[in-house]
Automatic annotation (TrEMBL):
A family per Pfam: Fer4_9
Alphabetical list of InterPro entries matching this protein: 4Fe4S_Fe-S-bd (IPR017896), 4Fe4S_Fe_S_CS (IPR017900), Flavodoxin/NO_synth (IPR008254), Flavoprotein-like_sf (IPR029039)
Family matches, as SUPFAM superfamilies: 4Fe-4S ferredoxins, Flavoproteins
Name listed for the protein in its UniProt record: 4Fe-4S dicluster protein
Keywords for the protein's UniProt record, in alphabetical order: Iron, Iron-sulfur, Metal-binding
PANTHER family linked to this entry: FERREDOXIN SUBUNIT OF PYRUVATE:FLAVODOXIN OXIDOREDUCTASE-RELATED, IRON-SULFUR-BINDING PROTEIN
């Protein structure tokens, strides 16, 4: 019998949250949320009778570094965990394995894993509108299997997910969002930015060294002033859409 279910996610453009919540809704009626983008301290400690459902977006084939850093503050005690790596229809490379191994190191027992597809947050024409109805149906079906598995724990073993260690080196993304003249300097972008790349006094400027292009600032801007812009973006977008538009399906791994 599970005492408390926790949904913990890092979700700059909202699709990882949606994915994690869909899994949770197929298992429990209620759960607690920990949004790693907003919440910095204190991180929850989970016990053996709790359940963790953790989600991370895939950035350059890896978990975004602020997400990994913040997850290292979450502790389990042989706590069962279901994990999801959410990616924009290119590939998830080593991100799911990285998430699994990170949480195992934090005291969690990963019993099931999903590599789910979502609209690409830099190139939204790719996998536009996903997770869609079919994705949500598949996630619900996966959640049903997880619920059954939770009834029959403990069981030996761990799900064998795709990925290789050492993980691929995270390639920096050269495209950075900027603000146009509709910026009112409200500071919402600076407040949400996980790397401190936006100075609240000059929110129209972005520190390109610090920015990880996560898109949290784009999603948070009430004026829709922030976006990826410029000729380099347009060229990259055309190439990316051409190469990665063929629909991929989610993958699921269970004990
Ligand atoms: C900086 C950055 C790097 C990304 N790298 C990848 C990638 O390697 N493979 C992929 O398929 N999608 C990639 N994506 C797309 C995201 O994984 C995808 O849009 C995800 O749904 C974003 O999650 P969120 O909505 O919770 O922010 C990347 C997105 C960003 C912002």
């Amino acid at each position: 019998m599970i005492k408390n279910t926790w949904c913990i996610y890092f979700s700059p453009s909202g699709t990882t949250k949606k994915t994690v919540n869909q899994i949770a809704a197929g298992i429990q009626k209620e759960w607690q949320e920990c949004d790693l983008l907003a919440q910095r301290e204190p991180m929850p400690e989970l016990g053996p009778d709790d359940l963790l459902i953790a989600g991370a977006p895939v950035f350059a084939g890896r978990i975004p570094s602020p997400c990994a850093e913040r997850l290292r503050g979450v502790r389990g005690d042989k706590t069962p965990a279901i994990i999801a790596a959410v990616y924009g229809n290119r590939d998830y490379d080593d991100a799911l394995l990285e998430l699994q191994e990170l949480l195992e190191g934090q005291g969690f027992r990963v019993i099931a894993a999903a590599a789910a597809i979502a609209q690409h947050s830099i190139f939204p024409d790719v996998a536009a509108g996903r997770p869609d109805e079919e994705d949500l149906r598949q996630l619900q079906n996966f959640a049903g299997k997880c619920a059954k598995l939770l009834e029959s724990l403990p069981q030996p073993g761990r799900p064998s997910v795709k990925g290789h260690a050492p993980y691929r080196a995270p390639a920096p993304v050269p495209l950075k969002p900027s603000a146009d003249r509709s910026c009112t300097r409200c500071g919402a972008c600076a407040k949400i930015c996980p790397t401190g790349a936006i100075d609240p006094r000059y929110p129209q400027e972005t520190d390109k060294e610090r920015c990880i292009s996560c898109t949290a600032c784009i999603a948070a801007c009430p004026q829709h002033a922030r976006a990826f812009r410029g000729p380099a973006y347009k060229i990259a977008k055309a190439g990316f859409v051409k190469k990665f538009s063929a629909r991929k399906e989610p993958e699921f791994f269970l004990l």
